[in-house]
Amino acid sequence: MKLTVWTYEGPPHVGAMRVATAMTGLHYVLHAPQGDTYADLLFTMIERRNHRPPVTYTTFQARDLGADTATLFKDAARDAVARFNPQAIIVGASCTAELIQDDPGGLAEALGLSIPVIPLDLPSYQRKENFGADETFLQIVRHLAKPQERTAQITVNILGATALGFRHRDDVEEITGLMSDMGIGVNVVAPLGATPADIARLPAAHANVLLYPETGESAARYLEKTYAQRWTKTVPIGAGATRAFVAELAQLTGAQGRPDESRLRLPWWSRSVDSTYLTGKRVFLFGDASHVMAMARVARDEVGFEVVGIGCYNREYARPMRALAKEYGLEPLITDDYLEVEAAIAAAQPEMIMGTQMERHIGKRLGIPCAVISAPVHVQDFPARYSPVMGFEGANVIFDTLIHPLVMGLEEHLLTMFREDFEFHDEAGASHKGHGAVAFPLAGVAGGSAPAAAQPPRDISGQKMQQEQPVADAAATGGAVIWLADAERELKKIPFFVRGKARRNTESFAAQKGVTSISIETLYEAKAHYAR
Amino acid sequence: MTAPAPGLPTPPLMAPAGGGCRTAPVLKERGQREVFCGLTGIIWLHRKMQDAFFLVVGSRTCAHLLQSAAGVMIFAEPRFATAILEETDLAGLADAQKEIDRVVAQLLARRPDIRQLFLVGSCPSEVIKIDLQRAAERLNAAHAPRVRVLNYSGSGIETTFTQGEDAALACMVPVLPRTEARELLVVGALPDVVEDQMLDLLARLGVGPVRLLPARRIDDETAIGPNTLFALTQPFLGDTHAALIRRGARHLPAPFPFGEEGTTAWLAAIAAEFGVSAEIFAAATDAPRARARKAIAQAAETLRGKSVFFFPDSQLEIPLARFLTRECGMTAIEVGSPYIHDALHGPDLDLLAAGPQISEGQDVDRQLARARAARPDLTVCGLGLANPLEAEGLTTKWAIELVFTPVHFYEQAGDLAGLFSRPLRRKSLLQLEAAE
Predict the structure, then answer these.
(1) Is a pLDDT exceeding 90 seen at residue B125?
(2) What burial class does residue B259 get, using C-beta atoms within 10 Å of its C-beta: 0-12 exposed, 13-18 middle, 19+ buried?
(3) pLDDT for A271-298, tens place per residue?
(4) What are the φ and ψ backbone dihedral angles of B216, each rounded to 5 degrees?
(5) From residue A484, how far is each of A88, A217, A407, A453, B244 by CA, in Å?
(6) What is the pTM of this model?
(7) Cβ contact (<8 Å) for A62 and B82?
(8) How sure is the predictor about B310, in pLDDT bands with cuts at 50, 70 and 90?
(9) Were B335 and a residue from A54, B83, B309, B321 both cysteine, which residue would form a disulfide, CB within 3.0 to 4.6 Å?
(10) Which of A39, A59, A378 sits opposite B72 (nearest CB)?
(11) Does the structure show a pLDDT above 60 at A466?
């Protein structure tokens, strides 16, 4: 047994649902108890889908267990085929049904249906969501892809995009456009938007573009082995990686065209003087391995951040993650334990987190801004506007995503310049609200600058938000270190959006040195110690 | 409904002229159910019982369900977790009881503030027959008196959505202390603000002391005995009802306290039992009744003459249909409930005018076909169905909000009506055709 508070990935059958829901003309008959239908709302609510996922749940109950759950499955499968008229079905078991060992594959086979029946074997007690998606897509491809001639024009398949993917919808559109500039057509996009008939046509493409290794790599490998289709290894996130992807694709397909870079803004935005303040900002990256590895390159090489922590929750990609982390001189954090990630972030004290929605929560609690770069997704990760993270437009989007949580460069200077102004301090409130305005809780103003000392995680469900506590109280609980009055006054002169960090750094510096009372000297020694 | 006692403080509610629904034929269906399992109750129970922790012994699916249902509502480390079963647990390589001891020790070390621990069974733990009762008894002996350890099942093979709360409360009943006092016990988790309003109303009636189940903290004085009289605030507490009766307590049947009528009838049943005079009852309730009627009237302008179709979800459907038809002027087409329990739902069914199809259980595709054919003005359904139905042009109300929002008693009656009128008002406000 493993004690788990939050999980990064759902069970493997949810991965299978991501594939089934992404496709059309495919139905999933899932042997599952009442309650497993909760997964429908991930798609209808988080992704705002206007259709129910194409899943039929057998909904067995305790009283069925002694009786005939196999018949329940067969009836559900037969009814689903009659009602939804799919081109093919996938069949499998959720975690509970796996225990009762009804063999959905065999049962469905015995029905003698006129459409392909694809059995799934997804071990619920060993594997997780990404594996489920990857394996399901592989099985669909194995069962449905047919040998055939290559297309006359240069075409590729785009593999790996699923329902509930992080920006998959827009990434596919961006990469399709980019390849169109290069004179490369798209044969099939799969699973997203594909029908079983489309899957049969996969071998007609000249090569495969694998955008999401987590959910498409097994299928790409299978297609390479069986149909000699080579596949792209570069994930085109960031300007540099997109150019590398273009070069790789040109080499794989022989395409001569070059994509239009006229709308790519990231390199200049990064070089422009306002971006100077981004230099060396310490960032911690965590998420799925592919997004984290690609984003690390953007963070370091294209924005000028310092990567101080890196990791992923999917163990399947531990090896490439370790190799990449070594390049950055880091020991990677490979875990799906949310509390461990929180502890690592608290220890690293980054100035920004690039993570998932889970790290966004960690950031809220620790007072560190967070940019979301990876699944697991949240309703916020499905913006109405076009917002890819891949290709050249994706590079622009990433630049904005990374700087918006931070205090802007010019703002930073102005805040320092005006910090003695009677109207311009943290207790004054926003000036456009008039002089009666009450100050915001600190974290709200400065894009999440540290309000509270780093503390072990604790429950705040009785309160609204930790940020509502006054900063001094939160910090006062920090430990045995005492601030002398003059040091406390000096601390107040530091702009409020970095004051929390200064307080934290000084206190941990003092603790390291065994100093129990902090004077102005200690404050500035700490400043020098942490200076870059 | 209860036989009107002599001197009942208010005239009993008028039963519908054409008869109620209590004896109407019920369409019983089974098939795919689009509902949560009982684990979901942990989401509100752990907020209600501030010294309690809920440890699910289950699979990754259970953890994922809790996370998805809790969504982003909780930013902190919550007072629930899942002990996820792994391959070694299934293959019998690890002793489940020892594993539970280890996980609980880890948990209690991390959370010394925990006074009550619930071991919650799930589908997989029930199927492989992990004996959580044995575990709870052993752990209780080990950690008493600091921590009380109990167990119940929130599995989908045994419980539907709100039945999880029922199972949790029912497992507490046998361990509550005994009392001989003639006391009112109010049963069902309510938001604190609503609970305080209710206690205030009962105090004005002169009924007291009032005990609560669940109590906010383990040290609160809730006890049960042969002179206990209990009232339910939630219509899904069938097992708790039975467990209380086993301990000799007596149920005060009444319509549930939704809307002005429901709240008045619920209070009247208690007032009759405790001999509250008509004057005192009127003094305590006249003003809030008038406020509630006024608040409902605003939302009812939108709702009057509209039809409503309930998919089964929380077992709140029957009392809510009674409220919407009698107080808001709506017509019910179908009222689906996961389970119908006559002792609990009977008083509301008596007041719900005959006409709607009453259904129990679910075959979701067949029910969807009925809803599409009926084209109700408002469909009350779960989150998995709401957006797909909206896309088909039906207006929906998410049923889960009825469980997570304060909706009981007079001061919330207007809010309750507002939950139903808002989707309809929104539909009439938006001018999206021009944009399409």
Answers:
(1) yes
(2) buried
(3) 998 888 889 999 999 999 999 999 999 9
(4) -65, -35
(5) 73, 59, 29, 18, 61
(6) 0.88
(7) no
(8) very high
(9) B321
(10) A378
(11) no
d(CA B108, CA B135): 15
Residue among A6, A30, A34, A44 with most chain B CBs within 10 A, to mutate: A34
Closest CA–CA distance from residue B17 to any residue of chain A (Å): 39
Q: What does the pLDDT average to over B285-313?
A: 96
Give the percent of chain B with pLDDT over 70.
Answer: 95
Asked if A17 and B359 touch (Cβ cutoff 8 Å), the reply is: no
**pLDDT for position A426:** 54
- Kindly indicate the confidence band of residue A269, based on its pLDDT and cuts at 50, 70 and 90: very high
CATH 3.20.20.70 for domain A441-530 = no
| Cβ neighbours of residue A506 closer than 8 Å, sequence gap 6 or more | A491, A518, A522, A523, A526, A527
Distance CA B46, CA B79 (A): 6
Name the residue among A37, A51, A96 with its Cβ closest to that of B127.
Answer: A96
Contacts of A37 in chain B (CB under 8 A): 32-36, 384
Give which of B61, B106, B392 to mutate to test A binding, by max A Cβ within 10 Å: B61
Hey, do B26-33+292-435 and B38-159 end up sharing a CATH topology, with the first three levels equal? yes
**B105-114: average pLDDT:** 91
Q: Reply yes or no on whether the pLDDT at A474 is more than 70.
A: no
State the count of interchain CB pairs (< 8 A) between A and B.
Answer: 198
Which of A260, A274, A400, A421 is the catalytic position? Answer: A274
The owner of tokens 């390849």 is: A179
Residue A60 has pLDDT above 50, yes or no: yes
Chain B residues whose CB is inside 8 A of the A126 CB are: 86-87
Contacts of A133 (CB under 8 A, 6+ apart): A15, A16, A18, A19, A162, A214, A215
For A203, residues 6+ apart whose C-beta sits below 8 A from its C-beta are A145, A146, A147, A148, A223, A226, A227, A229
The reported pLDDT for the residue numbered A276 is 87
The 10 Å Cβ neighbour count of residue B73 is 11
This complex has an ipTM of 0.92
CB contact (8 A) between residue B87 and residue A126: yes
Cβ contacts (< 8 Å) between B386 and chain A: which residues? 44-45
**What does CATH list as the number for A145-253?**
3.40.50.1980
Cα A169 to chain centroid distance, Å, stands at: 14
Q: Where are the domains of chain A?
A: 12-132, 145-253, 266-406, 441-530
Tens-digit pLDDT profile for residues A93-109: 999 999 999 999 999 99
Average pLDDT of the residues in B41-70: 92
Choose among B310, B308, B396, B420: nearest CA to B360: B310
Residue of chain A whose Cα is closest to the Cα of B111: A458
Cα A186 from Cα A177, distance rounded (Å): 10
Q: Over the stretch B391-432, which tens digit does the pLDDT of each residue have?
A: 999 999 998 889 888 999 999 999 999 999 999 999 999 988
Q: Is A226 on the interface with B (CB under 8 A)?
A: no
Give A36's contacts in chain B (Cβ within 8 Å). Answer: 37, 61, 156
| Cis status of the peptide bond prior to A259, with omega within 30 of 0 | no
Q: A266-406 in CATH: which number? A: 3.40.50.1980
Contact status, residue A320 vs residue A408, Cβ threshold 8 Å: no
φ/ψ of A306, rounded to 5, equals: -105, 125
Contacts of A2 in chain B (CB under 8 A): 83-84, 86
A274 is catalytic: yes
Q: Any chain B CB within 8 A of the CB of A456?
A: no
Minimum-distance CB partner of A37 among B34, B38, B87: B34
CATH superfamily, domain B38-159, is Nitrogenase molybdenum iron protein domain (3.40.50.1980)
As a CATH number, domain A12-132 is 3.40.50.1980
